[in-house]
Amino acid sequence: MSSKNIVLHIVISLLSWSCALASAQDARPEEDRMALTIGFLHPLATNANRPNVTSSVDLSVLYGRVGTVEGLQLGGVVDYAARGITGVQLAGVGAITGGSASGAQLAGVFNLSTGPTTGAQLAGVVNVAADSVTGAQLAPVNIAGPVQGVQIGVVNIGRKVRGLQLGVINIADEVDGAAIGLVSISRDSVHPIVWASNLQYMNVGVKFSTKYVFTLLGVHYGTHEADFDKVGLTFGLGGHLPLPARFDLEVQGSFTQLAPWKHGDKYKTNSWIAPQIAVGYSFAPHLRVFVGTGVRVPLSVDLGRAVSRPEFLAGLQF
User: Fewer CB within 10 A of the terminal residue: the chain, N end or C end?
Assistant: First the structure.
């Protein structure tokens, strides 16, 4: 068995053992306080017969377990505070609390909090807060109940988010704030969109919107430089301002690139950025018309002239 598999087996065994112990031991009354607890692999620890002790500082090599942490819990592999933490929980692999967390959970692989979390969770792979989060989650994958604060990662998942989700994929029941990423999905947030302009003739895409912020992924066919010989991709990031009488104002920055084509022994492409502004009117939640204008600025142009051009656009959002 490889060293990686051995470590994984140890972690899984420790977590299983922890859950089994928790079901039997968490029902016991809270025990007294200890300024310092030290362990190797609980119950090989100074609190062997006092698993629910409140510890100011808990230090462990493989697996440390106490009832409550009021200060610092530091472990080489896995930390477990059955009743909650106030302070810092730091582990090489995983930090777990069976209650609330107030302060910071920091781990090389994962953090798990089953109660309300106030402060920060920072992990190398995943943060999980089964209850609410007030503060910040930072990891490649963040999962939480209600969030008041920020989630920053590759994949962010929350219930009602009041604040910011910043990642490649953001998922929430509802966002009161901003979700910024390639794909951001929440209630009534996904809108197919079609539009045309004098520089990009035929465009179709998907718009992911929250109350004030949106992202856009689209494809186009036909351009001012290449007529209908080339296709390309568009990414947009913008802000939405509701106006009276179902009108709205949107300001967007977009990046557009033609699909690379081979010319001789080299591949060539055109790419532009464009600040744009548009006025819209919503007949219904999924039927909006808009018209706008902007300026398309060349970044790299292998086909046509590398000059800035005014752009006029109009379309439908469903």
Answer: N
CB 309 within 8 A of CB 199: yes
Q: Under 8 Å CB-to-CB from 175, ≥6 apart: which residues?
A: 160, 161, 165, 184, 186, 189, 210, 211
Structure tokens at 203: 């465009």
- What the block records as the tokens of 167 is 């990642």
How far from 39 is each of 168, 194, 286, CA to CA, in Å? 40, 62, 59
How far, CA to CA in Å, does 91 sit from each of 12, 102, 249? 15, 16, 48
Contacts with 20 (C-beta within 8 Å, 6 or more apart), sequence order: none
For the chain, the residue count is 318
Return the sign of the alpha-carbon dihedral for residues 42, 46, 48, 50: negative
Residue 96 tokens, joined: 């777990």
CA neighbours closer than 13 Å in the CB half-sphere of residue 280: 25
Residue 204 CA to residue 225 CA, distance in Å, equals: 19
Using DSSP bridges, classify how beta strands 94-97 and 100-107 pair: parallel, antiparallel or unpaired.
Answer: unpaired
Tokens (6 digits) for 310 = 């005014």
Residues in the chain with pLDDT values less than 50: 2-28
